[in-house]
Amino acid sequence: MMTTSQVSEQPRRYLYLLIVAFCGFVTSFAAHVVNTNLAAYGTTMGVGAFIIGLIIAAYGFAELLTKPLAGFIADRAGMKRVLQIGIVGFIFASFLFFFINPTYLILIRFLQGLGASAFSTLSVALVAKYFIKGRGIAYGIYNTIKGIGYAIAPLSGGVLVVNWGFSSLFLVTSFIASLAFLMSCFLPSDREMDGRDGVVAKSTFQQFLEPFEERRLLPVYGAIVINTFLVGALFGFLPIYLYSRGYTPVESGIVISFVTISYVSIQPIAGYLADRIDIRLTIIIGLFLAGLGISIATFTSGTALVFCVVFAACGAGIVWTNCDTLVSLLVKDEKLGAGMGAAQFFKEFGDMGGPLFIGGMSQLFGIQIGFVMCGVLALLSLIIVVHAKTFKQAFDKII
Hints:
- The protein is an all-alpha fold.
- The chain is built from 17 helices and no strands.
- The protein is 83% helix and 0% strand.
């Protein structure tokens, strides 16, 4: 039996990292490969934008509800075990699409979201379990691989739909989820590593709420929510803004490609820095870059606009990765699953709330004001974050 510290020293821990990162890739790819190709489903089934919106929300809502619960249960039943249960549930939901009326797609997406919430949360938590040292770069690698799923899903999904129909998306997602399950069998048991095999701790509702009430975690959760607002602006509304400014689809695609590449590629660098300097400092700088970049982007054009959104994407990527690392360092090891589940809950909350905020502001005042208000909100929140006890010492190093 290997202890946590022994696993953390092993060269094989990078193999374990690739396995859990692939699990993360499955969740991001599965979420976006369907969502970005729902127009084909809408045309075939004769449903409008509102129903499509509900289908998109169903997956995210399921994750929002169950990520904290999955982490909480995993601290008692074992992370690997709950991760594998989640994968099996996701595979079942994907295959179910072939046996029910396609009009029930919203149910399928909700069930997929329930399964994905478990192995998404536990794959994040297991990174911390396997990496006591070098945790920052490990999270950088994890989030880069997971981010690739977001990046390739729209195009690959489009190719699948055009050539083999909408149902092929569920065949492919069930296949890669099955591959993730087989790979997960090679992960060491975290309960054996902790010497807790066969031991199940008693649980109370108050224990479930503890990660949400931990005062030193609250500023980190705030940074997570604001950052996901900014990510929503970059990837959800930047294409709309570019269209309003007269950019062609090709020109807009080039700009979004720069944003995506910057967002994904900065994350291993952010993790590397987090292992060498105060991680809280990297989050403060990242949030500042993201907020400032989005605030001024709409006052520029051409090369200057590209630089602004690239800076914003780099800042958002830094915060995205290093908040995971910071939460894993702040929570107790026996509550790692619950802590990471709570962090993932706030990411999902920001993912859902961000588009609503910037969409509402854009509808009322125009998309330029929507972007500016999103960036200003981030900069104002930064004032609160740096005065919080969790971050204040790191901010004092700047000034």
